[in-house]
Amino acid sequence: MSDAAARRDPVLDIGRGVAMVLIVLGHVTRGLAAGEELDPSRTWYVKLDAALYVLHLPLFVLLSGAFVARAATRDGTAAYLRSRLVLLAWLFVVWTVIQGAVQLAPGRLVNTPISWRDILAGLWHPLGELWFLPTLAVLTVVTVLVAPWRSPGRRWALLAVAAAVSLLDWGHFGHWSGIQGMGLAVWYVLGVVVGHARLQAVAHDRRAAPAALVAVAGLVALFVVTTPVNPSDSTVPRTPDGIGAGVLAVVLGLALSCGVARLVAASPLREALAGLGRRSLEVFLAHIAFASGCRIALTHLGVDSLPVLIGAGLLVGLGGSLLLVAITDRVGPRWLFAPPAFLRRPGATAAAAPA
């Protein structure tokens, strides 16, 4: 660990690490449902899927926005946008090709076989989870150009517009690159407006743990009574009541995440989850290949135990991704997670970071 990492407050990195564990778990269970290893109509799966998606992506985008104001102010609007957009565009193209090449495998080796034409179309109709990168790019451009940190008027105006966009698009995924999952817009803007310092203070507050217990009770009650619509890609019908329940579930989920981050920061899991959080974007990009490969291998070996398939997929998705990150850090190829030097501005970091 570097001296800078050692001095860094880990609580927001832990939050990102928690979000990444839940993201990988969500993709593992959706992969099993798509592969017919589990029945997606079963009540427990519908509830689990909705719970995961109201917890992880809002938290992930909130924390992705938390350091934007500091970085844009430090680097300047033009320099920050250039480095950020070059990174996101590079990763989007590279991983579209990689993920598309994996999906070229024939027959039952993958859930959704595709053609080379589909890979090209993936640039405007993103493959799998890669939709997040162009959506993050659009949210970054709009937010940085408005610069809500410069005045209260800009802050409230951007929050109001983002809230309207999120409510109108809540639970609707969309089809085109850059506008998918816009139900998440308000949480990204909220992260930018609140900023990393205030979020750290909230997570370190002694009231975070009791608030997390209240949030757990509220979430359990909410999911017993109904199935909330998640903001980005809902598998349940979009209704006014479901959307309202989804908004409340996200708020409760964020409160729960603050308490969990505070507890983990004082536990033996601190370094593991903080390390995962620091490399969360790389893990986000790589985990599908590892988790899917694990599912394919186990099912071909005749393993049909859901707990084993889910647990193994989660561990291999996380562990394989972190191993790949470690290898690329040491011997390359570094272009998997960072654009080549000629595309980066002088002095820009090569590391793929979520903020």
TrEMBL record:
| Keyword terms of this UniProt record | Acyltransferase, Cell membrane, Membrane, Transferase, Transmembrane, Transmembrane helix
Kindly list the residue ranges recorded as spanning the membrane: 12-33, 53-73, 85-105, 130-149, 156-173, 179-199, 211-230, 242-264, 309-327
GO CC annotations, alphabetized: plasma membrane
Location of the protein in the cell: Cell membrane
Indicate the secretion signal residues: none
Q: Pfam family example for this protein?
A: Acyl_transf_3
Tell me the GO molecular function terms: O-acetyltransferase activity
| Location, primary (coarse class) | membrane
Q: Which family does it belong to?
A: Belongs to the acyltransferase 3 family.
The name on file for this protein is Acyltransferase
Question: What lineage does the source organism belong to?
Answer: Bacteria, Bacillati, Actinomycetota, Actinomycetes, Propionibacteriales
